[in-house]
Amino acid sequence: MDKTKRHRLSTRAWHWINLLCVVILFMSGLNISNAHRFLYWGDYGFQPSEAWLVVPRFPAWATIPDFYDLAQARDWHNLFAWPFALVLLFMWAAMIFNGHFWRDIRTRRREWRLASIAEDIKAHLRLNFGHSPGKYNFLQKLSYGIVFGVLLPGMVLTGLAISPGMGPSYLWMIELMGGRQSARSFHFIFAWALFAFFVVHVLLVILAGPYRQIRSMITGAPLDKDAPTAQQEART
Amino acid sequence: MSGMNRRGLLAGAGALFLSGCGKVADSAAGRSAFEAAQRLHQGAQRALGGGGLVKEYAPSEISPYFRGNGSVDPQNGDYQAQAAAGFTNWRLQVGGLVERPLSFALEEIRRLPQRTQITRHDCVEGWSAIGQWTGPQLSVLLEAAGLRDGARFIVFRCADNLNGQDYYESVDLDDAFHPQTIVAHALNGEPLPIRNGAPLRMRIERQLGYKHAKYLTGIEAVASLDTIGEGKGGYWEDRSDYQWYAGI
């Protein structure tokens, strides 16, 4: 790894490929959701009275394609599921082997003290983002950890559980999720949790200086002289 | 930049992205990428599943009602007259690339070795229902007729005409000979209701609902789907470009 860069090439490549995949999967997913706007728990469900949630109809400008077409939306969804899952697998492998996960994303026990979490929240509210000794502060680590550990893989695992062709090989996971309709509900919940992350993420990038932030995710950007390098952090 | 301009820029970028998606989807390269992804899903699912069975449920898990979709009460041809006569004159033809073309009356279908299975039906729209289906395995009929060399797909011919086109579907031999692929004549121990495909329908348990052809009149072994219907392998495939492999 080039230790003078803020973001490794693997991180930057994953970030932008993942963004494209997630945008297409999310917007084609909204089109698919319009086909049957009811969510259920358990194995079956087909009438509104059984639903725990009636999902609003998503407007055409928010969907791919930009008119109701279940077949074409499924084409987009099924195509981009592949690069989405494969680059996620690649990113996890890269994070484990290059130490990014252990060094930057894993939280330490001391960070879970209420007082230090409260401090971190206060610092965020003051829009002070440079207050942590490591690369990421606690709330960043926590949210990246949830996104990488739960939401992104959760999209893949729940998506597989909805597919009837996975029935013979994947029954244990479908059962673990509480049945096919539960898996479909989780697929929807995780998708919107990712959307919530996306909104906060973009907002914080804008508040923290969008030009510098976006540039560093494209070029890698040289490390600030004052900021601790990964090596220094690893020693602390 | 004023807020109005920024919103305009965002909306413009969004519209550009969507029209770009439309161009990709309409292009030959886009279509072949979609088809390649489907084949990859099919290959992966088949490799992982290895011909295994889908879950069969307990009688207590059967849904209180089994929704019908697509045709739910065909009005074309002599279907209504057949229904009024209790389908006593219904025939199921087995033909195409077979050694011995066969024709079955309902009574003969019921006398074949039967399989009863309580399975979950997943519609492409997203809903699911659980029902108990009874009928002979498709493999029993195909073995009785004897497939000829070159037969690669099984086409299901249906009595219902939906929006001016006869419904049909097709599967490959892997699905045709799967143990849970049956020609069902009963739902939850009763003759099939009309909305669920009376008097005969297919159960293709590892695929979505539109593959499970209802109002079944014919089973045809073919070498290629190119000359059947508009060549895409099924009613919804021809009409709206639904995926031929519907395991996802």
TrEMBL record, chain A:
Keywords: Cell membrane, Electron transport, Heme, Iron, Membrane, Metal-binding, Transmembrane, Transmembrane helix, Transport. It holds the Pfam family Ni_hydr_CYTB. One of its GO terms (biological process) is respiratory electron transport chain. It is found in: Cell membrane. The keyword tRNA processing does not apply. Its main location: membrane. GO terms for molecular function: electron transfer activity; heme binding; iron ion binding. This is Cytochrome b/b6 domain-containing protein. It is a multi-pass membrane protein. Residues 6-220 form the Cytochrome b561 bacterial/Ni-hydrogenase domain. GO terms for cellular component: plasma membrane. Gene3D superfamilies: Transmembrane di-heme cytochromes, Chain C. The chain crosses the membrane at residues 12-32, 80-102, 142-166, 186-208.
From TrEMBL, chain B:
Coiled coil: none annotated. Pfam families: Oxidored_molyb. This is Molybdopterin-dependent oxidoreductase. It comes from the Bacteria. InterPro entries: OxRdtase_Mopterin-bd_dom, OxRdtase_Mopterin-bd_sf. Residues 88-222 form the Oxidoreductase molybdopterin-binding domain. SUPFAM superfamilies: Oxidoreductase molybdopterin-binding domain.
